[in-house]
């Protein structure tokens, strides 16, 4: 489900992030991210869905497995951003 290409006033491509604000490549979490909070996971999913970042690039940049990324995507689709909470994983997994 790719969105149309959007450019901000600086000519940078962006997608609408999980909080409703524009998200550019420079706004994504750093590649050395070890602590994956809900917002960061949702930003990476939004970037891939919006075509800002390819799935292969996301997996390589963030050292994720395809299964991990797809689990994030499925959780967002089913329960919204709250589905990404690791402390409530048993509640959301079914």
Automatic annotation (TrEMBL):
It holds the Pfam family DUF1153. Signal peptide: none annotated. It comes from the Bacteria. Gene3D superfamilies: Winged helix-like DNA-binding domain superfamily/Winged helix DNA-binding domain (1.10.10.10). InterPro entries: DUF1153, Trp_repressor/repl_initiator, WH-like_DNA-bd_sf. This is DUF1153 domain-containing protein.
